[in-house]
């Protein structure tokens, strides 16, 4: 799927500074659904076009819950702009979405002539106009015809937007409204999606005549989520001019709160040499590398593919040698003893144990707590009691989870493991706590003898 951004603001090649992507190169990024590319088919002082191309890997979109459903293999997801493209846009143009530009800060704050084209998008001309026109865009949308032998129009559009808009605003319009036009999300919609909607809609969504439709579609028709978002928009809409100048505290997504809780636990035990066990694609590793307190960082995972993703995410090939020497990536199964893992200050199992079959947990305990035996171990896992707050969730939070524990079950397992291997254990809540169900994530900090 494809999206192009064109400007004639002179010099037009300054678009590269705003997007933080050099016009003379092809940039590639690994994303959860495939590979995203940014390239410039034209780059002159008079006119510059940046193209975002998302090459979707259909295998990554397969729904494992029903492997015999033909719809997994025959669908429009790799071709029609949707939440997949919006998610890629958010990752690739992260700084531009925030309106940040180290090299051209004054230009980032300026309204510039823009032309945006999305050549294949599900939706109607009427809806596209209702969504984009109130934001100052001139909308030219043409239905894509079906084959001549069939006749008529398909349900897809070729969308062209023209206007003089701040680039950050344009990108945020697209981030929200592409999934709204498609009326689908390719991932589970959790409560943190409300924050994403309000953050990206800041300054324009509250006054949009279609804000109810936008909220409902963006939040996958989860009525409780949409009602919550709309109530907060109403409050924002009546803020006085004086209050409007005050900074608004951002509620961090749960993944960010979980990461920060792990970093705080590591700081509490003065860990410098850290193992990230079951590191996956490197979400925690990225935060560890940025913190100079950690002098040696090891990411371990049974999946070689996950380690490749982590290496790209960390940009190990571009790090200075001194920084690169702090980081090691090892393929290792946590249910088997590995002498390389012995002697570290701390080990982290962040959202890992719930992916292990219960009969294999004793093997994991023996290899991590018994054989590797770091001075401290940090374990996080979902709190099953909190699942009632996720509207529409009937099973576990992820299809690969083997179990999800209540707080009592987690504390019983952690206390028994601590007694068996000579640790003391304490517990922390991660995320906003509910008075009866607790927080969405639970954390255990195991501390051995100093």
Task: Describe what is shown at a glance.
The chain has helices at residues 15-19, 83-92, 94-98, 105-108, 125-132, 167-182, 192-200, 211-218, 223-237, 254-268, 283-290, 304-314, 321-324, 361-372, 407-421; strands at 2-7, 27-31, 34-43, 48-56, 111-122, 138-145, 153-166, 273-277, 296-301, 327-331, 346-350, 376-382, 424-430, 441-447. It is of the alpha/beta class and 450 residues long.
Question: How are the secondary structure elements laid out?
Answer:
Elements lengths: L1 E6 L7 H5 L7 E5 L2 E10 L4 E9 L26 H10 L1 H5 L6 H4 L2 E12 L2 H8 L5 E8 L7 E14 H16 L9 H9 L10 H8 L4 H15 L16 H15 L4 E5 L5 H8 L5 E6 L2 H11 L6 H4 L2 E5 L14 E5 L10 H12 L3 E7 L24 H15 L2 E7 L10 E7 L3
Parallel strand pairs: 8-9, 8-11, 9-10, 11-12
Antiparallel strand pairs: 1-4, 1-5, 2-3, 3-4, 5-7, 6-7, 12-14, 13-14
Helix pairs in contact: 2-6, 6-8, 7-9, 8-9
Family: Belongs to the methyltransferase superfamily. HEN1 family.
InterPro entries: 3'-RNA_MeTfrase_Hen1_bac, Hen1, Hen1_N, Hen1_N_sf, Methyltransf_12, SAM-dependent_MTases_sf
Cofactor: Mg(2+)
Shape: globular
Largest sheet at a glance? Answer: 7 strands, antiparallel
Taken in chain order, the helices and strands follow as EHEEEHHHEHEEHHHHHEHEHHEEHEHEE
Number of helices: 15
Predict the CATH topology of the largest domain. Rossmann fold
The counted number of beta strands is 14
Average residue-wise pLDDT = 87
What's the number of domains?
2
Architecture per CATH nomenclature, i.e. the level-2 architecture of the largest domain: 3-Layer(aba) Sandwich
Give the amount of beta strand, in percent: 15-25%
Summarize the amount of helix as a percent range: 25-40%
List low-pLDDT spans.
63-71, 236-250
What is the structural class?
alpha/beta
Order of the strands making up the biggest sheet: 2-3-4-1-5-7-6
| Structural Rg | 24 Å
First and last CA, distance: 55 Å
Which homologous superfamily in CATH is the superfamily of the largest domain?
Answer: Vaccinia Virus protein VP39
- Name of the CATH class of the largest domain: Alpha Beta
Oligomer: single chain
């Amino acid at each position: 799927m494809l999206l192009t951004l064109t400007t004639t603001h002179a010099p037009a090649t300054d678009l590269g500074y705003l997007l933080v992507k050099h016009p003379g190169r092809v940039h590639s990024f690994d994303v959860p659904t495939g590979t995203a590319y940014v390239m410039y088919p034209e780059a002159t002082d008079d006119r510059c076009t940046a193209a975002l191309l998302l090459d979707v890997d259909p295998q990554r979109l397969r729904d494992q819950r029903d492997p015999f459903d033909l719809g997994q293999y025959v669908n429009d997801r790799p071709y029609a702009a949707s939440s997949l493209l919006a998610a890629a846009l958010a990752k690739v143009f992260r700084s531009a979405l925030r309106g940040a530009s180290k090299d051209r800060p004054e230009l980032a704050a300026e309204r510039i002539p823009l032309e945006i084209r999305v050549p294949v998008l599900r939706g109607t001309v009427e809806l596209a106009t209702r969504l984009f026109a109130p934001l100052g865009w001139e909308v030219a949308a043409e239905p894509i015809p079906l084959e001549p032998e069939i006749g008529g129009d398909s349900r897809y559009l070729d969308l062209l937007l023209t206007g003089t808009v701040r680039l950050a605003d344009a990108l945020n319009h697209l981030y929200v409204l592409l999934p709204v036009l498609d009326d689908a999300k390719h991932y589970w919609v959790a409560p943190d999606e409300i924050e994403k909607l309000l953050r990206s809609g800041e300054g324009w969504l509250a006054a949009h005549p279609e804000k109810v439709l936008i909220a409902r579609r963006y939040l996958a028709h989860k009525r409780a989520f949409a009602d919550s978002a709309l109530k907060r928009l109403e409050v924002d809409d009546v803020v006085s001019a004086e209050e409007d100048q005050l900074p608004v505290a951002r509620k961090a997504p749960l993944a960010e709160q979980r990461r920060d809780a792990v970093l705080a636990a590591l700081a509490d035990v003065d860990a410098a040499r850290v193992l990230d066990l079951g590191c996956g694609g490197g979400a925690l590793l990225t935060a560890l590398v940025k913190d100079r307190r950690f002098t040696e960082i090891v990411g371990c995972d049974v999946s070689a593919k996950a380690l490749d993703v982590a290496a790209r995410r960390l940009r190990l090939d571009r790090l200075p040698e001194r920084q690169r020497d702090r980081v090691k990536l090892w393929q290792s199964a946590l249910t088997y003893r590995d002498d390389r893992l012995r002697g570290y200050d701390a080990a982290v199992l962040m959202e890992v144990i719930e992916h292990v079959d219960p009969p294999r947990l004793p093997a994991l305990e023996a290899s991590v707590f018994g054989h590797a035996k770091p001075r401290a171990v940090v374990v996080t896992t979902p709190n099953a009691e909190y699942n009632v707050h996720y509207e529409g969730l009937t099973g576990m939070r992820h299809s690969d989870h083997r179990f999800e524990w209540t707080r009592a079950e987690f504390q019983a397992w952690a206390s028994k493991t601590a007694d068996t291997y000579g640790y003391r254990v304490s517990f922390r809540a991660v995320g906003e706590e509910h008075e009866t169900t607790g927080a969405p994530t639970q954390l255990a900090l195991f501390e051995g003898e100093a």
